[in-house]
Amino acid sequence: MTGIVIIAAGESRRLGQPKQLVLWKSIPLIRHVARVALEASLGPVTVVLGAVDEECRSALQGLPVRVVRNPDWASGMGGSIAMGVTSLMESKLSDIIVMLCDQPLISADHLRNLEEESRRTGYGIVATRSAGVNGPPVLFPSSFFVQLRTLRGNQGARSLLHAAPLLSWVPCPAAACDLDTPGDLLELRQREAV
Q1: CB 3.0-4.6 Å disulfide test: which of 16, 100, 108, 144 passes with 39?
Q2: What is the CATH number of domain 2-193?
Q3: What GO MF terms are annotated (predicted)?
């Protein structure tokens, strides 16, 4: 079984508004991403919150996800990943997918493809490849859980990707579309209108 951790703890300084609450297809982005994770039907889903905790909890109401708050969210993504992975340790998981709340074009099919690639190759980490770069969502097998639980600061899990002796990837051009700036939001709105 594969758990999914959605990182949604940041304050979205560059965007100027909480990206978690930006409407995408008429619902808050955090709810959309959580629904995609649930639709993949891989295992339990945890959402890690921080800066806009209460509003995000409201947006997630009624969804069968575990919500945890990282009180030290401002120190960076590493601690949020560690908290999310730790929250899933009571489940008997073979893998965990770490995904971000600001990639609205990621599909449930893509999440399932990450798991299928892991089973097919037997490799350790399976990343998403977009524009020649490996990044999130990323599947980590249980052999990386201890390392994920000790992450801190802004580094996130990128160091694990770079150090992985065996790394596979699944192409997903849609992963390049993330929401960090007002320009990104405008581009996503234009895509949504098409």
Answers
A1: 108
A2: 3.90.550.10
A3: nucleotidyltransferase activity
